[in-house]
Automatic annotation (TrEMBL), chain A:
Receptor required for the peroxisomal import of proteins containing a C-terminal PTS2-type peroxisomal targeting signal. Specifically binds to cargo proteins containing a PTS2 peroxisomal targeting signal in the cytosol. Cargo protein-binding triggers interaction with PEX5 and formation of a ternary complex composed of PEX5 and PEX7 along with PTS2-containing cargo proteins, which is tranlocated into peroxisomes by passing through the PEX13-PEX14 docking complex. Belongs to the WD repeat peroxin-7 family. It is found in: Cytoplasm, Cytosol; Peroxisome matrix. The keyword Repeat applies. This is Peroxin-7. The keyword Protein transport applies. One of its GO terms (biological process) is protein import into peroxisome matrix. Residues 151-264 form the EIPR1-like beta-propeller domain. WD repeats lie at residues 102-144, 145-187, 188-224, 232-265. GO terms for molecular function: peroxisome matrix targeting signal-2 binding. PROSITE patterns: WD_REPEATS_1, WD_REPEATS_2, WD_REPEATS_REGION. InterPro entries: Beta-prop_EIPR1-like, PEX7, WD40/YVTN_repeat-like_dom_sf, WD40_PAC1, WD40_repeat_CS, WD40_repeat_dom_sf, WD40_rpt. Pfam families: Beta-prop_EIPR1, WD40.
From TrEMBL, chain B:
Belongs to the peroxin-14 family. This is Peroxisomal membrane protein PEX14. The keyword Membrane applies. GO terms for biological process: protein import into peroxisome matrix, docking. Its main location: membrane.
């Protein structure tokens, strides 16, 4: 399975929704504490299992997250630690990039997500407690959602309802928003500790997974949100990212500070169905490909990016 | 929003599948939720994502008690809201609690002021007309504590002032009362003295002796009255003290309750930690982490907390104090600790460059999309009904982009990617729930050769447009050579992989008819290419 070594510590990895073999990696120097950042666009060379870099973009501050555009195959959104949101055209050389830099957040932008149904807008969440809605063609944000009492670590769109998204915050709540409404439409006090990630189930649009510092992942049904429908324990430390599979209703992947990437089936009693411990530092980014079933990618603070097929050993040659 | 609740709880419970079905049929993945849900429920927005519970009175009252606490009143509103949200209150309940909280204190103040005034009045009248009114005073004094105790917590800070005012007023009243008494006693004394003087010639000694006892009597009466007044004052102050003690008791009870709750929570978290304790002792915990218990293992903010609150450097992530009593901290890499230490000392790590990452041309035109968006796997089942859903194949050759019409096939016309290595499946996968998925899984996944042999170059792809494949292949001369060497192996596995692919595409596109046509095309083109490589 191919490995790519990044010069900086990895933060996020995302598969392209247009090209099966393409993915982008967000990295930050010095663990994201203080330093530059870099966005790598990698290609899985079909010949040998290898990852080659197509293009890379340097940033003044660390890049915490990426989102591929769903409308333009070459556009990439980067969430940067200096509070700016940068848009890159991967078909243009680095000297012509970025094509946009949107600076409205007053603190680090921690996540970016592109709307998969409407395909014209994206949301960014930041440590300034807000979530902002943008479109690629506008120089300013369309809306700002300010209700959380602490950093918003993640915001993700509902895969079926084009106006609904969910946000996960350090104030220990999940909030569901509708862009047509003034404020949040639902507040789920999901954990006793900070919630680092959330994701919607692609096949049941009422299920949300939340990943928290308390090492657990909880699956919530918004129709009955007082009690989670499943609690997934097994990680040794905080769970950093969670991602529902685009191909299977019950499968989700997660990565954690315990350096492992885990696969779960939340409908089963013994939910942990796979564990990959290929990283030697915090595993911070994980993604499941929408175009290729079972293809996983992960990155971590050990400056490595792995791409492997579910069931295989990521470190196998 | 959530107030339009009556039909929604029942309807949402039963209808989400139909709702989803409706919305899915509506859309080609764009703008789905308006009309069908409007038909379903009175609200046009997806009401599943809205709180539809009625307000819970008990929660609201608990929230009111919480918000009335003096310490809470001093905290920012956002933290009060956040606390209540974490307790599970809905927005409406929180708003209602905020609405209710400012009201009680002003009215309680008014009642207690009235009580104070009443007390003063009653005490003065008591002193003026001794006996009967003594009963009145205990009543107001008794009423005052009960009136004041419900708002004891809010009145605590002001009570001392009122206490002082009351005491002063009472003393003044009693002083006035004694003054009045003395006056009353003085006037008869004067009168008697005048009488004595007038009648001095007639009966000096008799009058004197009569006057003295009366003087003495009246002096004694005055003294008694003064003593009574003093005792009344003492009683009043005593009762005020008692009420104050009562209030202190209430307050301490409240604090105790809060403490008990805190203790319970702590014990719960402890027990949780104990339960998870064994799994955590992986031998990787370092001294640093055990000391830095305040470090939260939250997202990226946590690394910067490191037990300290703030950095001076503006360019460094500044942190907020993490919550106490959090789960065990993950051990951070050594170099991470070094960098943190460096940053805290105010040094900048050496390897940072000055990079200008601003757009060179802020008005750079957005590129034209080269590919049409693909349908998502979870939308595929719905896309069947949507006409004209053209899924275009992808070409990942450097710089070359082709638009290849494809009937629901998702493959690359690259030279050796019919089964790219990343699409190979391993039989070791224990997939669960294989039968229930809309965008079906590979039902013949387990047909893969069980032996994990060394990597084999994949077959030439089954392409729809061989000309395109030709054009792409030219720049890559290395491709065909690899294939020719392991051609025999490849041909053996080709059938299996072809089967896989065909079935894959069947499940993906959901239409068998389409595939059949393509299948034949694939076979013919494959044969062509195989012949080519032979030559």
């Amino acid at each position: 399975m191919p490995v790519f070594k990044t010069p900086f510590n990895g933060y996020s990895v995302k598969f392209s929704p247009f090209y099966e073999s393409r993915l982008a990696v967000a990295t930050a120097q010095n663990f994201g504490i203080l330093g530059n950042g870099r966005v790598h666009v990698l290609d899985l060379s079909p010949a040998a299992p290898a990852l080659t870099e197509l293009v890379a973009f340097d940033t003044a501050d660390g890049v915490y997250d990426l989102a591929w555009s769903e409308s333009h195959d070459s556009l990439l959104i980067a969430a940067v630690a200096d509070g700016s949101v940068k848009i890159y055209d991967t078909a243009l050389p680095p000297t012509a990039n970025p094509i946009r830099s949107l600076h409205e957040h007053t603190r680090e932008v921690h996540s970016a997500d592109y709307n998969p149904t409407r395909r014209d807008s994206f949301i960014t969440s930041s440590w300034d407690d807000t979530v902002k809605l943008w479109t690629v063609d506008r120089p300013t944000s369309v809306r700002t959602f300010k209700e959380h009492a602490y950093c918003v670590y993640n915001a993700t769109w509902n895969p079926r309802h084009s106006d609904v998204f969910c946000s996960a915050s350090g104030d220990c709540t999940l909030r569901i928003w509708d862009v047509r409404e003034m404020g949040s439409t639902m507040i789920i006090p999901a954990h006793e500790f900070e919630i680092l990630a959330c994701d919607w189930n692609k096949y049941d649009d009422c299920l949300i997974a939340s990943a928290s510092v308390d090492k657990s992942i909880k699956i919530w049904d918004v129709r009955n949100y007082r009690v989670p429908i499943a609690v997934l324990n097994g990680h040794g430390y905080a769970v950093r990212k969670v991602k529902f599979s685009p191909h299977r209703r019950n499968l989700l992947a997660s990565c954690s500070y315990d350096m492992t990437v885990c696969l779960w089936d939340f409908m089963v009693e013994d939910a942990l169905v796979g564990r990959y411990d290929h990283h030697t530092e915090f595993a911070v980014g994980v993604d499941m490909s929408v175009l290729v079933e079972g293809l996983l990618a992960s990155t971590g603070w050990d400056e490595l990016v792995y791409v492997w097929q579910q069931g295989m050993d990521p470190r196998a040659v | 929003m959530a107030t339009q609740s009556p039909p929604s709880p029942s309807s949402t419970a039963g209808n989400p599948p139909t709702l989803a079905a409706e919305t899915s049929q509506q859309a080609t993945g764009v703008q789905q939720d308006g009309p069908p849900e409007a038909a379903e429920q009175p609200i046009s927005s997806p009401s599943v994502f809205v709180n539809s519970e009625p307000m819970r009175e008990e929660q609201v009252q608990n929230a009111v008690k919480f918000l009335s606490h003096p310490k809470v009143r001093g905290s920012p509103v956002i933290y009060r809201r956040s606390f209540l949200e974490k307790k599970g209150l809905t927005k409406e309940e929180i708003d209602e609690a905020f609405r209710r909280v400012p009201d009680p204190p002003p009215s309680a103040q008014a009642t207690s002021a009235n009580q104070a005034v009443g007390q003063v009045k009653s005490s003065s009248s008591n002193i003026q007309s001794q006996a009967p009114t003594q009963a009145l005073q205990p009543q107001p004094a008794g009423a005052a504590p009960t009136a004041v105790s419900p708002v004891s917590t809010t009145m605590m800070s002001r009570f001392h002032w009122y206490h002082a005012v009351l005491a002063v007023g009472l003393l003044a009243a009693s002083g006035a009362g004694t003054a009045v008494f003395f006056k009353k006693s003085l006037i008869p004394r004067l009168k008697s003295w005048i009488r004595k003087v007038v009648l001095e010639e007639e009966d000096d000694s008799e009058n004197k002796s009569i006057a003295k006892p009366s003087l003495a009597e009246e002096a004694a009466a005055a003294a008694k009255a003064a003593a009574a007044a003093a005792s009344d004052v003492a009683k009043a102050s005593q009762e005020l003290l008692n009420s104050k003690n009562e209030e202190r008791r209430y307050f301490s009870e409240l604090m105790n309750l809060l403490d008990v709750q805190l203790q319970e929570m702590k014990s719960m978290s402890n027990s949780i930690r104990k339960l998870e304790g064994p799994s955590n002792n992986s031998g990787r915990t370092s001294l640093v982490n055990q000391e830095d218990h305040r470090d939260s293992v939250t997202g990226v903010k946590q690394p910067y907390a490191n037990g300290k609150a703030d950095f001076d450097m503006q360019s460094v992530r500044s942190s907020s104090p993490p919550a106490p009593g959090e789960p065990s901290v993950a051990p951070h890499p050594k170099s991470y600790m070094e960098i943190m230490a460096m940053v805290q000392r105010g040094e900048k790590p050496p390897n940072i460059r000055d990079i200008n990452d601003l757009p060179p041309n802020p008005n750079q035109q957005l590129p034209n999309p080269r590919l049409a968006p693909k349908a998502k796997p979870w939308e595929v089942g719905q896309a069947q009904n949507a006409s004209g859903q053209v899924i275009q194949s992808q070409v990942s050759a450097e710089g070359l982009n082709f638009k290849v019409q494809d009937n629901g096939l998702n493959h690359q016309s690259d030279d050796d990617s019919s089964v790219p290595w990343w699409q190979r499946k391993n039989v070791k996968i224990t997939e669960v729930g294989e039968d229930e998925i809309k965008a079906g899984p590979y039902s013949v996944r387990t047909n893969e050769p069980p032996v994990q042999r060394t990597w084999v170059p994949p077959q030439p792809p089954p392409v729809v447009m061989p000309e395109a494949a030709e054009a792409i292949r030219r720049p890559k001369p290395s491709g065909p050579t690899e294939q020719s060497t392991s051609h025999q192996l490849a041909s053996q596995t080709s059938e299996v992989t072809d089967e896989l692919q065909r079935i894959t595409k069947i499940s993906e596109a959901g239409g068998i008819e389409e595939i059949k046509g393509n299948g034949s095309v694939q076979n013919s083109s494959e044969i062509q290419e195989e012949q080519e490589t032979h030559a």
